[in-house]
Amino acid sequence: MLYRMYVDECGTDDIISCHLPDHQHLAVTGVVISHTDVAANATPELNAIKHQFFPRADPDAAPAVLHRSDFLSAKGDFECLKDGATMALFQDRLFAYLDALPHTVITVVIDKHAMLRKQHWQLKEPYLYCAEVLAEKYVQYLERVNGRGDVYAESRKDKKNKALAKHFAEACTNGTQFVKDPERFKARLTTFDIEFREKKHNNTGLQIADLYAKPSFDRVMLLRDKDTPRKPFSARFGDLLWDRKYDRSWDGTRNGYGMKYLP
């Protein structure tokens, strides 16, 4: 079966300010969905939700593009969510949609401040490092399900896109620390080229990755600190990840499979 991993991040890859608590971590999340489920379920059902809550007067107008921070603040296309009852109904509908949709989530979190103190850390590019680890986890997942796949990522700045594309291709071509044999990448990835999409492209998988990015970061941090603050949306959808959507081993182990904390 063919799969696609959709990638988005929470936080920045800045290392200059990483000594500050709000800039200490970066989380990169991949949402893996089969091509079949994207076409048959993910896209049509998400469009139905948008049509229900954010209808367009013009039938040919592009649908709203879901962005977690925008709809939680009820801005722009999402002004109707200022009504508390409508917001609750929308989140219930979104939760049911994601709960029913077959998909698997992998999140890599890096403590940038701690990594800088590691003498062995030569690649001082947090996003690229997380993406490399995410690629390892993705290939290992594809091996377990006997599938093949590719990668779509949320577009950032052109320079950063080019750096990620180059590093990803080199990692897959040469092998990595934990997937040393490049033949494993060749066997499971249909291409070493990452496709980049902006929010305006209305890509279903990337919208799901955006919804999960912050809840997944918070859920990973909760394992390290039980007092990690989580807002209601983050707690609810983060717990969905923990209960049913994170990749895991045969015995239910999530750490090292659907969740990875560095260092």
**Could you estimate the helical fraction of the residues in percent?**
40-55%
**Strand runs, count:** 6
Q: For the terminal residues, how far apart are their CA atoms?
A: 33 Å
Strand content: 15-25%
Low-confidence stretches: none
The protein's oligomeric status is single chain
**Helical run tally:** 9
Provide the succession of SSEs. EEHHHEHHEHHEHHE
Mean pLDDT: 95
Main sheet attributes: strand count, strand direction, barrel closure: 6 strands, mixed
Radius of gyration: 18 Å
Strand order of the largest sheet: 5-4-1-2-3-6
SS content category = alpha/beta
Count of structural domains: 1
Globally, the shape reads globular
Architecture overview:
By secondary structure, this protein is α/β, with parallel strands linked by helices. The chain has nine helices and six strands; from the N terminus they run E-E-H-H-H-E-H-H-E-H-H-E-H-H-E. It has one domain. It has a six-stranded mixed β-sheet, with helices on both faces.
Helices and strands in order:
Layout: E1 2-10, E2 25-34, H1 35-53, H2 68-72, H3 84-100, E3 104-111, H4 112-116, H5 126-145, E4 148-154, H6 158-174, H7 182-188, E5 195-197, H8 204-224, H9 232-245, E6 259-262
Parallel strand pairs: 1-4, 3-6, 4-5
Antiparallel strand pairs: 1-2, 2-3
Short description:
The protein has helices at 35-53, 68-72, 84-100, 112-116, 126-145, 158-174, 182-188, 204-224, 232-245, and strands at 2-10, 25-34, 104-111, 148-154, 195-197, 259-262. The chain is of the alpha/beta class. The protein has one domain (2-262).
